[in-house]
Amino acid sequence: MKKALVTGGAGFLGSHLSRRLLDDGYEVTALDNLFTGTKENIYPLLANRRFSFVLHDVTQPFWGQFDEIYNLACPASPIHYQHNPVETLKSSVLGVMNMLDLALKTKARLLHTSTSEVYGDPLVHPQVETYWGNVNTIGVRSCYDEGKRCAETLVADYRREFGVDARMVRIFNTYGPNMHPKDGRVISNFIMQALAGENITLFGDGTQTRSFQYCDDLVDAMRTYMELPVEKVGAFFAAKGLGAPVLNAGNPEEYTIRELAEKVLELIPGSKSEIVFEPLPSDDPKRRRPDISLARELLGWAPKVPLEAGLAKTVEYFKGKYNR
Ligand code: NAD
Ligand code: UDP
Among residues 225, 241, 94, which one has the least CA distance to residue 166? Predict the structure, then answer.
């Protein structure tokens, strides 16, 4: 039986990935310090004998024998990663080093979760993997963006210097059930506000764009990517002129944040919420949309869940859990 380690396993994405790995027959260890994750996300998994949870901080070394390591541990929402910026940087940089050391010593395969934030406020649109990004090194988002950029460098160098079988996925805005209701990201905020009849807080004028991916689509991409043979992955990215395997995963449908607010309100008819405008946070990217040509070619993958369908499932989740 294959063994997988999922760091950040009690978080939004980590809990979905852990469930999928169990469904695929793996023995799964979820590691988390519960900074933004919650045991509620993994309660249903604890009944499975092949699942275990370890309370651990990824900035500290961790040992165990695994076939596959999925490194997700890092606060991901701007309000959380800015709350404790130095810890955020440590989680990215020390966290990936600890996991790369584990992969090196145990010959495990590693998949690291990077982010579209490595492109910063992008000057190339849509974003392709060969674009190097436009990131402020000293702004309030830098702890996250630069931490993730440094983590990518470490993955690339552990591959070159030590031959670790490591790959990376640059995740674009992803949403779905198990997001924390107070996570602070736009979809959970808008849905919770609309359900509670509170004002919908639109930052800036709402013309900034994002592309929203449903969690199941991302998990499909991650699992397919992780199962590819090391030689195939190496040859593919070398042929594309990329120094390491780094793949965009996102839904290329692009919406303004105002359109998103309107879609959420349509799904919650009778909501008393009104849209109010609040100041745009600094360094907030103006446009974001992934070019997923490489993922299509390498994985034969494309997102399947349209925004309306994914939002409807997410609204049902939040209604059932927090609007009893
Ligand atoms: P999340 O906050 O729900 O999950 C992160 C998990 O990591 C939480 O359970 C948290 O407690 C844990 N964690 C944080 N610091 C830790 C540490 N030092 N040691 C151990 N555990 C720690 O967020 P998510 O959306 O599930 O994000 C998971 C990963 O995917 C993150 O690395 C994030 O950067 C990346 N990502 C997510 C998105 C998205 O839109 N959801 C986009 C790009 C990248
Ligand atoms: N946003 C908003 N209202 C909110 C939360 C976020 O208008 O209550 C905006 C935010 O300014 C950004 C977009 O929605 O332009 C996506 O924000 P999120 O924090 O979800 O992700 P990120 O900025 O990291 O892509």
Answer: 225
Q: Which residues line ligand 2 (CB under 6 A)?
A: 78, 173, 185-186, 189, 201-203, 208, 210, 257, 280-281, 284
| The pair of three-digit structure tokens given for residue 20, joined into one six-digit string | 């999928």
Q: Angle at the Cα of 157 (from 154 to 160), degrees rounded to 5?
A: 155
User: Which of 255, 271, 262, 250 is CA-nearest to residue 318?
Assistant: 271
pLDDT at 263: 97
Amino acid at 204: G
Q: pLDDT tens-digit profile of 17-52?
A: 999 999 999 999 999 999 999 999 999 999 999 999
- Tokens representing 136 are 């402020």
Which ligand has the nearest atom to the CA of 30?
Answer: 1
Query: What domains appear along the chain, each with residue ranges and CATH number?
Result: 3-175+212-251+289-304 (3.40.50.720)
Beta strands in the chain (DSSP E): 3-7, 27-32, 51-55, 68-71, 109-115, 166-171, 174-175, 200-203, 209-211, 213-214, 246-249, 254-256, 275-278
Type of residue numbered 286: K
CA proximity to 44, closest of 19, 21, 23, 7: 19
Q: How much distance in Å is there from the Cα of 189 to the middle of ligand 2?
A: 9
Extract the tokens encoding 270: 């009778």
What global pTM score does this model have? 0.98
User: Do 197 and 270 contact (CB within 8 A), yes or no?
Assistant: no
Burial of 227 (0-12, 13-18, 19+ CB in 10 A): exposed
- According to the model, what pLDDT value does residue 240 have? 97
User: How many Cβ atoms are within 10 Å of 163's Cβ, its own excluded?
Assistant: 11
Q: Please tell me the predicted confidence (pLDDT) of residue 323.
A: 66
Instruction: Write out residues in the chain with pLDDT < 50, as ranges.
Output: none
Q: Under DSSP, is residue 261 helix (H, G, I), strand (E, B) or coil? A: helix
* CB neighbour class for 45 (10 Å; exposed up to 12, middle 13-18, buried from 19): buried
Residue 37 alpha carbon, nearest atom of ligand 1: 9
How many whole angstroms separate alpha carbon 193 and alpha carbon 187?
Answer: 10
